[in-house]
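Progress against Task 2.4 (sequence-to-structure conversion) is shown through the following example record, which the project officer requested during the mid-term review.
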Amino acid sequence: MSANHIGIDVRKYRDFGIGTYIQNLLDQYRDSNKQGITLFAAPTDAAEISARYGMTTETNRSPKYSLGELFTLSRQARRHGLDVLHSPHYTLPLLLHCKSVVTIHDLIHIRFPEYFSAPQHLYAKMMISHACSSADRIIVDSRFTQTDVEREFPTSVGKIETIHLGVSERFSVPCVPEEKEAFRKRHGLTKPYILYVGSSKQHKNIGVLLRAYKKFSSSADMDLVSAGELLSMNAESGEYFADQTLRGKIHELGKIDDTTLVTAYQCAAMVVLPSLYEGFGFSVVEAMKAGVPAIGARSASIPEVIGEAGLLFDPHSSDELAGLFARVAGDDILRRSLIARGHEHVKQFTWERCARQTLAAYDKACS
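Structure tokens generated for the chain above:
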């Protein structure tokens, strides 16, 4: 049986990670002229979403992570006669009368409870458990996350399918020299640099990154640049930002817009993802799309996503990471090989493919 009338909860449309997921799926559904989709949007987003995608859009006024969302979406799904409702986050409504698909991107709420209040941790655990037992199909971003979810929530076994995320084509569109020069000048970047993109939370392994960079920088004239949350907010970073030998070498761009992010990638000498836990790991595929060598930790989903197209290191070894920095910086043949391999490898990570497989998951839920 096909899913002819699909509902999608898009209230997290503007969120950083899940918002990217929602926006790219909707772009693909619109471009494929997929009919029969109803979107449930936050009041502040409904008009823009309706105009952009041309799909039936209804406002849902329940705040995210509220009791209300567990029931209002069910009522709306019933009123619209949906065949299937897709929750692109773990909060699947209660009392649904249609089939359901839920996307669980990772188990960070479970694996790192220290990031959340006790009520937030409990709510997340309850809702993920409910989603795993009640959803007809469960989508995850990586085989690593599939194993993680199945181990923690056995009721999910047999329902899960891994659908890798895509990467935007904008990362491969070359920036003109004037754009690169203006970017470097604006941020005071006069030297080649290593780029880190992401948050400064503890699981991102910022301490190992900074220790590795300090060792590498003692014999190399290359800076470290971060985009996203400030590295200086990390609990382990204080000694490195106070270190006189590193003064002026670490540059924090903070949160930047998409255009600036593309330029930051394309100007980088290499990109590093040292994280201990990732459901997917966008920055390594974005690096490969931008034509930049990628280095990732040998942990969680990163080896799966980076494949043979990048370099991997023990996430607990700053010495090994410093050695990889030196190898990439000093070996032009290796750099060219990594760029070429990345160019081929990243072709599999497309939003068209992600959307096509997601639509197929809707059909499977209804069969």
